[in-house]
Amino acid sequence: MSVKPRKKRSIETWDRKKIKAGERKRLLLKAGESFTGTGVHLPLMVWRGLEEGPVLGITAAVHGDEVNGTGAILKLIQDPPFELKRGALVLVPVVNIMGFERHSRYTPDRRDLNRTFPGSESGSLTGRLARVMMKEVVGRCDYIVDLHTAAVRRTNFPNVRADMADVDCARLAKAFGAEVIVNNAGPDGSFRREACKSGCPTIILEAGEVLKVESSVQEMTQRGLTHIMAELDMIDVTDDLRPDTAPHQMIVQSSSWVRAGSGGFLTFHVAPGDTVEKGQPVATNTGLLGKVLETIVSPHHGIVLGMTTMPAVSPGDPIVHIALPDTQKQFRSLEKSVDKIEDDALENQVRNHLATSITVVEHSVEEDGIEVNDTDDI
CATH number of the domain at 13-241, please? Predict the structure, then answer.
């Protein structure tokens, strides 16, 4: 990916407002207009440390219903676990403000903001919002962490996605401390891809569900952001702010969705964050009167990166998203590390918390013995 040389805009002045060293200032950035012709404004906070240093942007809700990151940024604003010594933070709790107000992933003109970057000053409503973000936020930051969740009716085990060929993106991704890093540059038109192309290394976190603020996800997000600030020497690390990380970290190059072969109602046998063997049952698909239609098995060794939370499925619906280790040896090492995680560790707290969105039972090969008429769909 080619990176454009750029001249970074000042962090000290926004819309003719001065931000002094050591100051936190709330700002409203004009992002468009509503159907009534009134202005739509993007709330953000600029927080400067006392000393010069890097500018880190933290953004959330590029998809307007993905508010786990919004909660994490608000917690960072209201109850920061550190004192910002060097550099500055640019905190944007909601990027897609128009989608957020409608509880929608998309903008009012039915576009996906995260496929519209770098945008255009004279384009669509969505394109104009993308352009404002590129100019006013990306244009002032040295690094960005963009916070996402799974799409509607899905949940994601916390994982970082980054272009690991970019040394600065790789530095951020490893510092965050998630168990899984997915190595890719992101789709065309995505915020992180275009931010990286403009010269601002950007990674994303995928964690949890839409329209929720989940406590364990919030805690893991805050821990990871603190790790990155420590790595960038923006904060002093004390005994109370020890940068503990996951017991292992696996970089994967690919992932695969396991899909339903037929319509039916699912009973799950795995949860987010579980390791799975090739051929292991991940779900049983039944009719509405309990007749087993199929046992869905994993075609790969790997770790469950995400899964549906909706048990009613149609043929071809995605069920379980599996991150694929490069080698069998890497998978066995991952399996052993997961087994050794302490019960009270944050990683296991997240696993247990995310599993509450679904019911997980052990797979049984026994027939239920109930007689039914010769009807295949019940």
Answer: 3.40.630.10
